[in-house]
Amino acid sequence: MLQQTQVTRVEEFYTLFLKRYPTVGVMASSHPAQVRESWDGLGYYRRATNLHRLSQQVVAEHHGTIPSEPEALEQLPGVGRYTAGAVASFAYGRRVPAVDTNVARVIRRAFHPHTGKGTKAEAKVHATATALLPRRAPDIWAFNQAIMELGALVCTARIAKCTICPVRMTCATGKRRVLPQP
């Protein structure tokens, strides 16, 4: 629900949605129009359609349990690399990065400021994100959340707030933007 939707908007729907669909099985057995109707007001209705299809596939292929492996998650409708990484690391403690737009921006600015866009660049960013991950499950979750927040609040798209960035001294972009203190 939070993908491309403000938290305040989701808050209105989240609890009611979970009451209506308390398990993957309940959602899987619901009519697609009913799921779509429950989503009404959140926008991006393809997400509701994919969520319904995902629930049916999880019931049919995974005995009603969301898989923990990113590769299996990516086989589900509407699940891409970022979502698979987020679910695997946040829900299951798997050692995988959750590289969204904010995380990619932080990594590009910190480690690869001259890397362009495209498949090779994305692979480079993802490999760096993987290399940065801590080893222990609780630390993986915290790291992924922290780097997302860093990109959302400090290393923003329009204005990089390098002077307040906690990693500026090791960041390729931050070192250039912040003058050393006397």
Notable features of this structure?
Endonuclease III, domain 1, 2 domains, Endonuclease Iii, domain 2, mainly alpha, 182 residues, elongated
Structure description:
The chain starts with 6 loop residues before the first helix and ends in a 5-residue tail after the last helix. It is 59% helix and 0% strand. The protein has 2 domains: 7-92, Endonuclease III, domain 1, CATH 1.10.340; 101-177, Endonuclease Iii, domain 2. 25% of the residues are buried. It contains 10 helices and no strands. The model has no long low-confidence stretch (mean pLDDT 92). It has helices spanning 7-20, 24-28, 32-39, 46-62, 70-73, 81-92, 101-111, 119-132, 137-153, 172-177. It has 182 residues and is mainly alpha-helical.
Please tell me how large the radius of gyration is.
Answer: 19 Å
Strand content: under 5%
The CATH architecture of the largest domain would be: Orthogonal Bundle
Q: What is the structural class?
A: mainly alpha
**Unreliable sequence segments:** none
Number of domains: 2
CATH homology group of the largest domain: Hypothetical protein, domain 2
Q: Helical region count?
A: 10
**What would you call the shape?**
elongated
- Number of DSSP-assigned strands: 0
Query: Describe the biggest sheet?
Result: none
Order of helices and strands: HHHHHHHHHH
Helix content: 55-70%
* CATH C-level category of the largest domain: Mainly Alpha
Kindly summarize this structure in a few lines.
59% of the residues lie in helices and 0% in strands. It has 182 residues and is mainly alpha-helical.
Layout of SSEs?
Layout: H1 7-20, H2 24-28, H3 32-39, H4 46-62, H5 70-73, H6 81-92, H7 101-111, H8 119-132, H9 137-153, H10 172-177
Helix pairs in contact: 3-4, 6-9, 7-8, 7-9
